[in-house]
Amino acid sequence: MFAITGGGTGGHLAIAKALAQELQAQNLKAIYIGSTLGQDKAWFEGSELFTQCYFLESSGVVNKSGLNKLKALWKQFQATLEARKILKAHKVTHIISVGGFSAGGASMGAILARIPLFIHEQNAIKGKLNEILTPFAKAVFGSFSSNSKNFIHTSYPVRDEFFTTSRIRQECKNILFLGGSQGAKGINDFALKLTPLLLQKGINVAHQCGERDFERVKQEYENLGILNKVDLFAFDKNLVTRLQQADICIARSGASSLWEMAANGLIGIFVPYPFAAKDHQYFNAKSFTDEDLGFVIRENELDIQSVLDFIESLQGEILEQKSSQVMSKIKPNGAREILNHINALAPIAKD
């Protein structure tokens, strides 16, 4: 029996889902242990991927101080004891943590119960919890480089659709602005400045601006007289098609977005979320731009000319070459690759 723990936000939970789907495909049973806070319940409550789901009371400890920090630590301690009981009751033999504060209780519970702990670190910079847990883990999996002795490089678990719809880009005719499902005001404001110039150059623009910012952005495009020339939308669940249609994407640099774009052969202009823990989005993007596979610019330094220069540099053979190179950075079946490594380190008995 496996346990998967962690989440809080979509990036962590997407990894948990990919691993659960692969376990199910291999006829291996799993339980899920998450938190009452964050998005864990919305993703997995009642999910058929797990034999049972548990949501424990816990909260993040990082960025808290004084009494609030003590309360958070106490909740984590209680969650650890509760998780240990759950793990023993289900006779869990392997546990995979995908990070996030909701992984704390079950991961610590596994260490106390001497159950092999495996960690997936999605970002280029380790989260605080993963940093603490790494010495106790059997292995840490990740798609960015790491100096940890127990680190194993694997492909990022990305849905097959991003690979099957991939293509080598040959010319820049379509640009996609991704402001996220909730909207990213910095990217939206930059899109409003850059789009008129892109349209003048004959480049088509699609812009996901988020539900919260939709009316404002729509009105701004209307004021500019170009609303009918822009494919503006609040949010599209069919992100695969949107990425496939784009030749360049301007977006945040969360790990999932980066690797989904790479799987599709799409070069990115990355605007890291400025308040991400340990500035991890910047370092995620930097791992690509260090290989000249994209462009990273901080939100407070957004500059129209430098972005235009980068776009204009990606024409013909250069774009084709970079599109092919970025695609080669990731292979399909990342979740299967992780489970194969787990089986080699701690053989899995079929349920």
TrEMBL record:
<dbReference type="InterPro" id="IPR007235">
    <property type="entry name" value="Glyco_trans_28_C"/>
</dbReference>
<keyword id="KW-0131">Cell cycle</keyword>
<keyword id="KW-0132">Cell division</keyword>
<keyword id="KW-0133">Cell shape</keyword>
<feature type="binding site">
    <location>
        <position position="181"/>
    </location>
    <ligand>
        <name>UDP-N-acetyl-alpha-D-glucosamine</name>
    </ligand>
</feature>
<dbReference type="GO" id="GO:0071555">
    <property type="term" value="P:cell wall organization"/>
</dbReference>
<dbReference type="GO" id="GO:0050511">
    <property type="term" value="F:undecaprenyldiphospho-muramoylpentapeptide beta-N-acetylglucosaminyltransferase activity"/>
</dbReference>
<dbReference type="GO" id="GO:0051301">
    <property type="term" value="P:cell division"/>
</dbReference>
<keyword id="KW-1003">Cell membrane</keyword>
<feature type="binding site">
    <location>
        <position position="159"/>
    </location>
    <ligand>
        <name>UDP-N-acetyl-alpha-D-glucosamine</name>
    </ligand>
</feature>
<feature type="domain" description="Glycosyl transferase family 28 C-terminal">
    <location>
        <begin position="175"/>
        <end position="330"/>
    </location>
</feature>
<dbReference type="GO" id="GO:0005886">
    <property type="term" value="C:plasma membrane"/>
</dbReference>
<comment type="pathway">
    <text>Cell wall biogenesis; peptidoglycan biosynthesis.</text>
</comment>
<feature type="domain" description="Glycosyltransferase family 28 N-terminal">
    <location>
        <begin position="2"/>
        <end position="141"/>
    </location>
</feature>
<feature type="binding site">
    <location>
        <begin position="9"/>
        <end position="11"/>
    </location>
    <ligand>
        <name>UDP-N-acetyl-alpha-D-glucosamine</name>
    </ligand>
</feature>
<comment type="function">
    <text>Cell wall formation. Catalyzes the transfer of a GlcNAc subunit on undecaprenyl-pyrophosphoryl-MurNAc-pentapeptide (lipid intermediate I) to form undecaprenyl-pyrophosphoryl-MurNAc-(pentapeptide)GlcNAc (lipid intermediate II).</text>
</comment>
<dbReference type="GO" id="GO:0009252">
    <property type="term" value="P:peptidoglycan biosynthetic process"/>
</dbReference>
<keyword id="KW-0472">Membrane</keyword>
<protein>
    <recommendedName>
        <fullName>UDP-N-acetylglucosamine--N-acetylmuramyl-(pentapeptide) pyrophosphoryl-undecaprenol N-acetylglucosamine transferase</fullName>
        <ecNumber>2.4.1.227</ecNumber>
    </recommendedName>
</protein>
<dbReference type="Pfam" id="PF04101">
    <property type="entry name" value="Glyco_tran_28_C"/>
</dbReference>
<dbReference type="InterPro" id="IPR006009">
    <property type="entry name" value="GlcNAc_MurG"/>
</dbReference>
<keyword id="KW-0808">Transferase</keyword>
<feature type="binding site">
    <location>
        <position position="281"/>
    </location>
    <ligand>
        <name>UDP-N-acetyl-alpha-D-glucosamine</name>
    </ligand>
</feature>
<dbReference type="GO" id="GO:0005975">
    <property type="term" value="P:carbohydrate metabolic process"/>
</dbReference>
<dbReference type="GO" id="GO:0051991">
    <property type="term" value="F:UDP-N-acetyl-D-glucosamine:N-acetylmuramoyl-L-alanyl-D-glutamyl-meso-2,6-diaminopimelyl-D-alanyl-D-alanine-diphosphoundecaprenol 4-beta-N-acetylglucosaminlytransferase activity"/>
</dbReference>
<keyword id="KW-0328">Glycosyltransferase</keyword>
<dbReference type="Pfam" id="PF03033">
    <property type="entry name" value="Glyco_transf_28"/>
</dbReference>
<keyword id="KW-0961">Cell wall biogenesis/degradation</keyword>
<keyword id="KW-0573">Peptidoglycan synthesis</keyword>
<dbReference type="GO" id="GO:0008360">
    <property type="term" value="P:regulation of cell shape"/>
</dbReference>
<feature type="binding site">
    <location>
        <position position="123"/>
    </location>
    <ligand>
        <name>UDP-N-acetyl-alpha-D-glucosamine</name>
    </ligand>
</feature>
<comment type="similarity">
    <text>Belongs to the glycosyltransferase 28 family. MurG subfamily.</text>
</comment>
<dbReference type="InterPro" id="IPR004276">
    <property type="entry name" value="GlycoTrans_28_N"/>
</dbReference>
